[in-house]
Amino acid sequence: MAALTTSRIEELILYSNHLTDSSCPHLASGIRNNQTLRTLNLSKNNLEGPHFTDLMAALTTSRIEELQLNNNFLTDSSCPHLAFGIRHSQTLRTLDLSYNNLEGPHFSDLMASLTASQIEELQLPYNRLTDSSCPQLASGIRNNQTLRTLNMCGNNLEGPHFRDLMAALTTSRIEELQLDNTHLTDSSCPHLASGIRNNQTLRILDLSWNNLKGPHFSDLMAALTTSRIEKLHLNNNHLTDSSCPHLASGIRNNQTLRILNLSENNLEGPHFSDLMTALTTSRIEELQ
Question: Which Pfam family would be a valid example here (predicted)?
Answer without folding.
Answer: LRR_6
